[in-house]
Amino acid sequence: MERRLIAGTPYRKLLTVPRPVAEGVKARLEARDIPVVLETPFSGLPEAALGTYMGDVNLFVPEALLGEAEAALEEEIP
To answer: DSSP states of 7-39 as a string?
Structure first.
């Protein structure tokens, strides 16, 4: 599982999905006070900041909240 250190906090990759799906997942998790960082293949380029890239992106959540994030996603599966 991929890991990133973001602002001194360890983050783990939760999943990789197309950008439109990622934005929905991000909104649901942030509504539960779980921070989410999206990573596109174009990090640092305008496509990443503007959200114009619609391909696959990685969602990272704080390592300490990974289990909670996974549980939140499982609750929403019909």
So the answer is: TTEEEEEEEEEEHHHHHHHHHHHHHTT---EEE
